[in-house]
Fold this protein.
Amino acid sequence: MTQPLLRNFTCPKCQCSRDFYVDVLATVHVSETAPCLAADYFADGDFTCVCLSCDYEGKVFEFTKAGEVQS
Ligand SMILES: [Zn+2]
């Protein structure tokens, strides 16, 4: 269902390839101490991604698609 997509991001608007906010799906271990990541996190293609350079907000697949075109 999900796959690691947290690399090769490129903003389709400003072509920036760094500085993004990405919604992810993660498993967190909650116990008596502070919660911590229990496994890798994943981003699905239709999760939200925001470019911090130009404030463009879109879906993850838009950002990864732009990266494929550019490479
Ligand atoms: Zn941008």
Observations:
- The mean pLDDT is 85.
- The pocket of zinc ion is lined by residues 11, 13-14, 16, 51, 53-54, 56 (CB under 6 Å).
- The radius of gyration is 14 Å.
